[in-house]
Amino acid sequence: MRIAVCLKYVPDPSTIEVDPLTGMIDIGRVLYMMNPADESALELALRLRPPDGTVTVFSVGPIEADRLLQDALAAGADAALRVWDDALGSLKPIVTTTLLAAALRVKALPDLVLCGGHSVDRGSGTVPALLAEHLDWPVVTDVTQFEIQSGRLRARRRLARGARAESEVTLPAILGLETGLVHLRQASLPNLMRVKYTPIPLYGLEELGLSPQDLHFPAMTLHEVMPPRPRARMMFTPDVGGSVQERVAQIMSAGVAGKAGKILESGTPEQQADAIIAFLCQRGFLEQPT
């Protein structure tokens, strides 16, 4: 089985600081790391790899992303590939997935692609679905658990409000994994030293068979703003057991009971207690005494 893992080089949130004078993020203090959800994807790929299988890691980013790919090689990945072109600037998910899909096609397509479901910088969660659209493969997102049997993949997904769902697809497929499923193994010191100066293959637009026009996607244009559809108003239904006068009064008041009270200024405590009980019985808070 050939497994591909998509990795992203993201800023470490704990190192982001705001300049008190300019109010801008101090870029000089920002450190970068592997996206946590991608770490889970890489560890699961290494655990899932059979003896005759391979794990290849891909990343779209500048030369600084080589460190990310070297760490993945030290952890146990078999090969790495970085995609970048100096003409590229800030990438949107649709451009990133176009580059990743082209990179996956450079060699034989894998049997399974694992991606982190969300990144800590953008968190759009659209990369797995967009990549599946480019490859015309099935995709399962928000995956918390999965297993593969006889060429079919069964996954458990996280839904809103704590709900869960199970999906089954046929390989090849793409999975978008949740953060924190597993922790990436610690690479040994010999492996870290071995990959420290390992060159990472770089593929530009020419090697991918793409042109700048292939990455130009027209921006969405807002043509009209329409107000939200008004919510249907619930009509009050009077109690059918009441008299005509009572039902008319309920309709006129829309079911809202008017405030009514009674002040007891005289009588013994026993008489006042009896008056309070009678008032509560009249208003329906207590049952009439037999």
TrEMBL record:
Coiled coil: none annotated. Residues 22-212 form the Electron transfer flavoprotein alpha/beta-subunit N-terminal domain. It comes from the Bacteria. Keywords: Electron transport, Transport. This is Electron transfer flavoprotein alpha/beta-subunit N-terminal domain-containing protein. The lineage of its organism: Bacteria, Pseudomonadati, Pseudomonadota, Gammaproteobacteria, Candidatus Competibacteraceae.
